[in-house]
Amino acid sequence: MGRYKKLTLLHSNDMHGDFVAESTDENLVGGVSMLSGYVDRVRREEANTLYCIAGDMFRGSVIDSEFKGLSTIDIMNVIAPDVVTLGNHETDYGIAHLLFLEKCAKFPIINANLYIKSNFARLFKPHIVLSVDGMKILFIGIITESVMKSAKNDTAVGSFVDIHEAAAEIGRICNAYNATDIDLTVLLTHIGFEEDKALAAQLDKAWGVDIIIGGHSHTFIEEPAVVNDILIVQAGTGTDLIGRFDIVVDTVENNIESWQWQTIPIDSGTCPKDEDIEKILGAYKQQTDAKYNRIITRLARRLTHPSRTQETELGGLFADILAQSLGLDIMLVGSGSIRTDGMGSLVMYKDLVETFPYDSPVYMLKISGAQLKQMLLYMLRDEVWQGVHSSFLQLSGRLKVVYDISHSKMTAFEFDGQPIKDEMMFAVGVQQYQYNNFERTFGTDIALVEKNGKARVVATSITDVLEEYLANHQHISHHTDGRLTLIK
Known about the structure:
The protein contains 16 helices and 29 strands. With 488 residues, the protein is an alpha/beta fold.
């Protein structure tokens, strides 16, 4: 038996139901069919190949939403990843439903730090040791704190789950398995690239962690970060790319002798289709097309949403529609609720649902000028510009905010063109997600705000409101107008 052995480690993250390839001028790009074709080809070419997914398989497509993740599990069962960890969007359909989907999966789903509060029992298997050509490879799954935001929407079991501190869980597992001659230790995380680096710095070298494969922040990198001698990687988002490690493992010293890492584009020029996946997709697509392929409206042009941390055309339009339709002074729309970089000009129902997949109630709160200013200053705090994954909001048009990032101060704060005074009161709309996670989103205790009056649900479905408005208004155009101006 040789001391040095080759291992090929493929990885994806934040696939978000990105099932179908998209046409470009030259070829097809992305989609699970060609992704599966590439994984199968590597498995044939490289004897020691493992494929892992670092969370967020769910959400982002009508096929995933319509079948509440079951379609995704069916497709992934055919691709057959060797190990998957949870992302925050795995809880979007409820924790109980997630546990059902886990039973449908023919691949292991691991997570080490999601617990039931009452008895400290883990909800999932925390780790797995995979044996490949005599090598033992330990995978440990770690989730982001933001999973608790989604879990709070789950009234059945959401209040009974908790996140334990990640580094301690990793140490506990590594200490338990160090004696079993583990050749390589890989953390599958869903906490964001910057948080991965912070986590790596906390880990004891004696625990033997070699690689962190992460997700959540949708980070595209050209080469791995190295912190505390740990390689840290991520492969952007969707299925347009797959990450690939080619590693030589020293099975005597139980570490990495050498490595190469790259991202591989998934396109028709280099990746064959998987005909079995094509059949599954076709069956699901046939069921969804009748419901989702109907025209809602035609916009004057395509409206864009290029970044979560700025005012966008699409974000402003959605906020304005909700404020106007629901009789609100101000509507605050979570920028991350908009999951595409644009919509239009022709808008099918499919386009609306894929662009804004998080249908939920809208809560109306009475908020004072002083409270609103404090909330928005929290959204614009310094940490946000340093890469912290935080809630960012799109504003409706009667509100205007000018914020100087370099001096950390608001230089304009107006409503209907007039300065907002502390004692003014406004009817402000927020989504259920922001309402349930008010302090985490706004840095303000919801109890203080509700002293002004109890929150009231003014719409049970955002999708209904947006669809009704768009269906009755043709050739809408919306430009950014400086309602949120950021001075750098």
